[in-house]
Amino acid sequence: MKIGLLVAGPLPEELVKQFGTFDDMFKALLLKQEPSLTFASYDVYEDNFPEDTKDCDGWIVTGSLHSAYEKLPWMIRLEAFIREAIKADQPTIGICFGHQIMATAMGGVVEKAPSGKWGAAVHTYKISLNDRERPAWMNGDGETFALQASHQDQVTVLPESGCLIAGNEFCPNGMIAYGKAGLSLQLHPELSSGIVETMLHKRRGTAMTEQDADVALSHVNDPVDADRVAQWMMLFFHQSWDRKPV
């Protein structure tokens, strides 16, 4: 299986030197689940797009320092690509900014959190579907899951075509499915505690109050379910890929 990484923005160089690129992080996350995976990367923030939604078997839209409501030309093109991929049953997963741009592509609304605060460090989401309602790729697995967060924007209006899967009080629309080919998540399965801790120290006293940053830092090393969510991602990719005619 070949996964296309739609990279929606670069990380600051000092973070890349310590922790790698978004590409590196997603590859490390998913290769633990399926070592035979191959990848192709496209810097969509520089208008570098695949020629066709079928160039890869599945797609991941990464995080970004941009906001989905900026509506830059490459974002409008990315929204169109997402809609086309979902319509063509090409499994597409959005993470953080990817979650938000998928929502705007499908008719939802993204804004800054009503509180004005950041979602940062480990957050826990409650799954809103009962066992019978859950999609097969979730494996009926648990009532909650925890991952690193790093966002101020969030999906405030759920698209009509979206099925809410999970969220919490800070971010109610935290995980959304769009039929069998679209899936998005505000949290970050690919981020380590180290990179989030580094970002929190940089934001402390600037983008975040010292008090808010310190609260987040106290939870940055809480346990996470990154491997479980990575397994969900792979099952989601296979659910669409395996059912296509040969």
UniProtKB/TrEMBL annotation:
State the organism of origin.
Answer: Cohaesibacter marisflavi
Q: Which residues form the Glutamine amidotransferase domain?
A: 49-195
Could you name the domain of life of the organism this protein comes from? Bacteria
Q: Which UniProt keywords apply?
A: Glutamine amidotransferase, Transferase
Q: Which SUPFAM superfamilies match?
A: Class I glutamine amidotransferase-like
The cross-references to CDD domains, in alphabetical order and at most eight, read: GATase1_1
Q: Name one GO cellular component term.
A: cytosol
Q: Which Pfam families match?
A: GATase
User: Which Gene Ontology MF annotations are present?
Assistant: transferase activity
Q: Which InterPro entries match?
A: ChyE-like, Class_I_gatase-like, GATASE
Could you identify this protein by its name?
Answer: GMP synthase-Glutamine amidotransferase
